Task: inverse folding
């Protein structure tokens, strides 16, 4: 059986899932967001988790319902413009002890509030992404570009604010800025800047181009910086990626299957800065398993000397099991089972 999950369909909307430890989970429901998950818990006692949608009580109190036309007035043509916008997911998730998560949505169908079983609350604010009008309609694409702009955490039902985080991005070439604020003020406690490859606005173009392809490293994190307050840089981490394979036809190329090959960290709160790095090798492995890892010491201005080297080999053909191939045999299908890991400590 290996690490597989077995799905059976006894009838109707029921689904039975059996995991490698022979635990059985049963999902039943009538469609939409009305589903129930049953399974055995501690001392074989029955447990139930259910998900439901209250179609008449999903809108966050204080908001008013929108139609597609009023939500996106610049959309052309206005197909189904009079159709209302509904909840983007379930409104209730009930736990085995009958406590529940209560999920509320704004008038764009986006999660706006989650009331927690513990009595706390998460609030989310949304806004238009760059390259879009004030409602979030991307100019010239008839595509929606909206994103979370703020998250608030309460220990109760909305009175005691303990955490406030702002999210922003000026354009596709700019990093995402995550500011953790002193609750209820404009004072930035910590800031993170996350730079990603690709541009979500331009990726919408790919969906409209029948022969367009996303770049192999779209959405991968290039680097991240950590600040005290809004401007004192403490630490930076840079990621280097490479595609596993590149195809060429004529003057065109296409790459895919990205691999993380190097992580370089810099401590900026000391002078001179301290730098270290890790390197990852995938030699002769078609399944993105790391076959060699090198860890370098902290150095002044650049990475120091090699500290540790770990070489890992993985099982494919098992001579003790009729030479079965773990990577290609569907009854096993394990492509990342280590056989041996050799750690070498480099002493200078």
Result:
């Amino acid at each position: 059986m290996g690490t597989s999950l077995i799905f059976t369909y006894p009838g109707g909307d029921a689904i039975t899932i059996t995991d490698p430890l022979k635990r059985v989970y049963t999902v039943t429901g009538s469609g939409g967001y009305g589903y129930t998950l049953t399974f055995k818990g501690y001392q074989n006692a029955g447990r139930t988790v259910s998900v439901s949608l209250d179609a008449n009580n999903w809108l966050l109190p204080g908001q008013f319902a929108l139609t597609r036309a009023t939500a996106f007035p610049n959309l052309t043509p206005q197909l189904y413009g009079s159709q209302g916008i509904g909840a983007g997911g379930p409104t209730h998730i009930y736990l085995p002890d009958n406590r529940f998560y209560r999920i509320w949505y704004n008038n764009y169908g986006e999660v706006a509030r989650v009331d927690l079983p513990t009595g706390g609350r998460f609030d989310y604010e949304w806004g238009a992404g760059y390259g879009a009008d004030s409602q979030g309609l991307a100019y010239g694409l008839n595509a929606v570009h909206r994103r979370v702009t703020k998250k608030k955490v309460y220990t109760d039902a909305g009175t005691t604010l303990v955490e406030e985080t702002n999210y922003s991005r000026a354009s596709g070439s700019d990093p995402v800025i995550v500011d953790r604020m002193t609750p209820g003020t404009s004072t930035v406690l910590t800031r993170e800047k996350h730079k990603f490859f690709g541009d979500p606005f331009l990726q919408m173009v790919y969906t409209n181009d029948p022969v367009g392809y996303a770049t192999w490293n779209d959405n991968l994190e290039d680097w991240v910086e950590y600040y005290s307050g809004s401007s004192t840089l403490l630490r930076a981490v840079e990621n280097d990626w490479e595609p596993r394979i590149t195809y060429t036809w004529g003057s065109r190329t296409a790459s895919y299957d990205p691999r993380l090959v190097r992580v370089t960290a810099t401590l900026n709160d000391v002078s001179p800065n301290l730098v270290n790095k890790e390197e990852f090798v995938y030699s002769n492995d078609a399944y993105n398993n790391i076959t060699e890892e090198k860890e370098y010491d902290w150095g002044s201005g650049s990475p120091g000397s090699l500290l540790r080297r770990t070489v890992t080999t993985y099982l494919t053909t098992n001579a003790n099991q009729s030479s079965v191939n773990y990577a290609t045999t569907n009854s096993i299908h394990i492509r990342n089972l280590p056989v041996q890991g050799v750690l070498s400590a480099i002493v200078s």
Remarks:
- The longest helix spans residues 200-208.
